[in-house]
Amino acid sequence: MALARTPKLLLSAFLLFGVAACGVDAREGTAALGGGGAPAKAAAAQSPADLQFGAEHRFTSGITISISPPQSFQPSPAAYPRSPRAASFDIEVTNNGADAYKLSGLAVTASISGRPAKQVVDATQGLNGIIDAGKDLQSGRTTRMTLAFAVPEQTTQLKVQLRPSAAEPGVVTYCGAA
Questions:
Q1: pTM of the model
Q2: Do the beta carbons of residue 123 and residue 78 sit within 8 Å?
Q3: 76, 90, 96, 178: which could join 70 in a potential S-S bond, CB 3.0 to 4.6 Å?
Q4: Distance in angstroms (rounded) separating the CA atoms of residues 55 and 110
């Protein structure tokens, strides 16, 4: 009985992540938390503060994150939400801080032309979201996960924003073609 409930619980957790973080531009979020800078309007173009996919970013807490370039794929009929095309990418999280890092704090959102993109869960293709969200990442350890977001059929600019926790004063934005 518990196995039948697991996908529903995972989906609920991912939807909660998405609702909590949708629509916050990286610079707006940083400014709201005292990081400086003026609020910026959502734009399809890359800003000078955005990182290219593949780059590594270290937060003040010691958490280091990198995201691989997006890979286009066709979601299976079992995917949610249904989409003709999606972009997946690998996220590597390394804890270089002194304390254990709670993976449940990781918020990942994506946008296309300033509009939120929906995360695709496709168990058939191994895309189950942040599967170790209930675990702590000990200091000096690294974990990897693969996430996907629904994208239009034509190539587009995709922005992915990450915040390691609500207490982290900054958000990092990765930008590139998907």
A1: 0.71
A2: yes
A3: 178
A4: 17
Find out whether 178 and 39 touch, Cβ atoms under 8 Å.
no
- DSSP assignment of 55-112, as one string? -EEE-TTSEEEEEPPPEEEPPPTT-BS--S-EEEEEEEEEE-SSS-EEGGG-EEEEEE
Name the strand (E) or helix (H) holding 4.
helix 2-21
Is 167 within 8 Å of 60 (Cβ atoms)? Answer: no
Q: Over the stretch 12-57, which tens digit does the pLDDT of each residue have?
A: 444 334 433 333 333 333 332 333 333 333 334 556 678 999 999 9
User: For the chain, what is the mean pLDDT?
Assistant: 78
Residue 24's identity, in one-letter code, is V
Task: List the structure tokens of 105.
Answer: 């704090």
Amino acid identity at 31: A
Contacts of residue 170, defined as CB under 8 A and 6 or more positions apart, other chains included, come to: 30, 33, 35, 59, 60, 163
Q: Is the pLDDT of residue 61 over 70?
A: yes
What Å distances lie between residue 132 and 49, 76, 101, 105, 106, CA to CA?
29, 23, 12, 11, 11
